[in-house]
């Protein structure tokens, strides 16, 4: 370095040092900063060689920049030294303030470590402070929190001497400023990478939003975005054209309502459950013309990482055709293909739904009035003679008052017992089962063919359906047998209904230009808990045969 007795040389060095530090702040990237650090050593501190060893993420140090010798740069740049080897050097070195110096007399022990170096052997110094090619001078660089950022290695001072106090202070001060510059450069690099990453993420987000918008707007099936939480919970925020066409409503009108305003009242519970839990549901939505359309709703709760659920994305698919087909299949499975009436399976299902396996308590004989379960055949239809009191066929366990008994303690919490009327008292009502068998139908089939018989069955089904209430059931049991379920009737009402239905069947039926006639025999049974559907139907069937045999063949014959 410069002679310590020459202040003007120190001033020149200080100026060059100041310029080198200023250059540190003009570097645009981390790589530029590292090279500027190395160049500043050569230009400002009068060393012919300088290398900047930078700490890598894995802790080892890589030669990131070399200045002063193209040969040394070619030999060292990019090579790595282990952290352990560097820590050994820094620990072995003589402390010159923050600097570390290892004289050539001790540096020979480091010859075989993995730290990249350019030193060559040379003759022994001629005087005490002469620089030897094997001398090592290192300037550690630290961050503001004391973390090791790297090490500056210098060699070949231009004056051929080991640096004095002034030179050491200058190198130490420069290393301090270089650490700050490298920290700032890393910060800028990290910020630039973060900005680039953020821009890419924003571009990806914009692309994703555009893709979602196009997929949402141009989806062939209905799509909707629904508000979650707050005062506007459930409100439709956004709808696509397909949903507007599906419901026959403009987007502006849909945005003023929610799905709960559009759903069929019977499907409201399903909608609320699906909206709360997500998932899929099939329900009916109201169209603008007042009709209801079967749709499949698939809900996805879109959540925010910090604020929780934000909105519900709903996919609305038209399943009207499938539902219609399913209903048709279900109708075919439960209804007679010829007459369209409920079939035997559906009849048994409806009847079984009203029955349980525990009968109502049976009162003693004193409580049972005339016409009770053990009464004679006194419940007929007058001159027509329809029996209603065959012993052993209508005793279902009565309370002597008719009507409905409460469920027994501990059982059937939601079941209302079905109880037959105990007497002819009009206030005692129950579920009447009328078993109808056509008289003279076989002769029509034999004389005119099955197509004529089918036409007769269709017309009889129509007349029976026309003669009952809307909530009554008329079913075809099979062949020429029909069953009517009529609830809320007393014994007299059931007898009157049988007479009306028989009279409705008797008038001639015109088939292919000819008039044919059939008669009908009715048997009446009463459904009650404690019996099965088969037992009730068997009871009505037996009563029908009793009624049929009680009339002469001439009175039964028709057609």
Automatic annotation (TrEMBL):
The species this protein was found in: Streptomyces chitinivorans
Keywords assigned: Coiled coil, Nucleotidyltransferase, Transferase
Residue intervals of the GGDEF domain: 429-559
Domain of life, per lineage: Bacteria
Annotated EC: 2.7.7.65
PAC domain mapped to chain residues: 279-331
Designated name of the protein: Diguanylate cyclase CdgB
Domain called PAS: residue spans: 208-290
Positions in coiled-coil regions: 184-211
Alphabetized Pfam families for the sequence: GAF, GGDEF, PAS
A single MF term (Gene Ontology): diguanylate cyclase activity
């Amino acid at each position: 370095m410069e002679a310590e007795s020459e202040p003007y040389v120190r001033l020149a060095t200080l100026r060059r040092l100041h310029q080198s530090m200023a250059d540190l702040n003009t570097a645009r990237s981390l790589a530029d900063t590292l090279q500027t650090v190395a160049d500043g050593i050569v230009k400002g501190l009068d060393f012919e060689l300088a290398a900047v060893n930078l700490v890598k993420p894995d802790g080892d140090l890589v030669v990131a920049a070399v200045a002063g010798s193209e040969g040394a740069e070619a030999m060292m740049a990019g090579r790595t030294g282990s952290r352990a080897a560097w820590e050994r050097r820094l620990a072995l070195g003589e402390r010159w303030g923050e600097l570390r110096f290892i004289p050539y007399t001790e540096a020979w022990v480091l010859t075989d470590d993995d730290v990249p170096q350019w030193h060559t052997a040379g003759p022994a110094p001629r005087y005490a402070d002469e620089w030897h090619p094997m001398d090592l001078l290192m300037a550690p660089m630290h961050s503001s929190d004391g973390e090791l950022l790297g090490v500056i290695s210098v060699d070949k001072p231009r004056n051929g001497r080991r640096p004095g106090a002034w030179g050491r202070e200058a190198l130490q001060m420069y290393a301090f400023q270089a650490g700050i510059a490298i920290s700032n450069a890393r910060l800028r690099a990290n910020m630039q990478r973060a900005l680039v990453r953020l821009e890419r993420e924003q571009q990806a987000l914009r692309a994703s939003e555009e893709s979602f918008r196009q997929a949402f707007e141009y989806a062939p099936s209905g799509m909707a975005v629904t508000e979650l939480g707050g005062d506007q919970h459930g409100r439709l925020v956004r709808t696509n054209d397909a949903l507007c066409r599906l419901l026959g409503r403009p987007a502006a009108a849909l945005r003023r309502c929610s799905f709960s305003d559009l759903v069929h009242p019977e499907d409201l519970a399903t909608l609320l459950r699906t909206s709360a839990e997500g998932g899929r549901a099939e329900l009916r939505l109201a169209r603008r013309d007042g009709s209801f359309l079967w749709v499949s709703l698939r809900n996805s709760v879109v959540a925010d990482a910090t604020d929780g659920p934000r909105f519900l994305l709903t996919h609305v698919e038209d399943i009207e055709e499938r539902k219609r087909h399913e209903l048709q299949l279900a109708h075919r499975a439960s209804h007679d293909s010829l007459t369209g009436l409920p079939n035997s399976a559906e009849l048994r299902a409806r009847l079984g739904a009203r029955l349980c396996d525990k009968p109502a308590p049976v009162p003693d004989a004193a409580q049972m009035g005339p016409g009770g379960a053990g009464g004679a055949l006194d419940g007929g239809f007058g001159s027509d003679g329809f029996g209603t009191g065959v012993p052993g066929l209508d005793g279902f366990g009565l309370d002597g008052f008719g009507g409905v008994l409460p469920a027994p303690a501990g059982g059937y919490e939601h079941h209302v017992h079905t109880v037959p009327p105990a007497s002819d008292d009009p206030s005692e009502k129950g579920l009447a089962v009328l078993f109808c068998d056509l008289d003279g139908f076989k002769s029509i089939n034999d004389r005119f063919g099955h197509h004529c018989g089918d036409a007769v069955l269709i017309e009889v089904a129509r007349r029976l359906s026309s003669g009952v209430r809307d909530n009554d059931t008329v079913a075809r049991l099979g062949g020429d047998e029909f069953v009517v379920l009529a609830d809320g009737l007393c014994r007299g009402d059931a007898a009157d209904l049988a007479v009306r239905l028989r009279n409705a069947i008797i008038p001639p039926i015109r088939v292919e230009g000819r008039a044919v006639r059939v008669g009908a025999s009715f048997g009446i049974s009463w459904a009650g808990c404690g019996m099965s559907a088969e037992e009730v139907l068997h009871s009505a069937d037996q009563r029908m045969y009793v009624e049929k045999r009680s009339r002469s063949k001439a009175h039964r014959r028709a057609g």
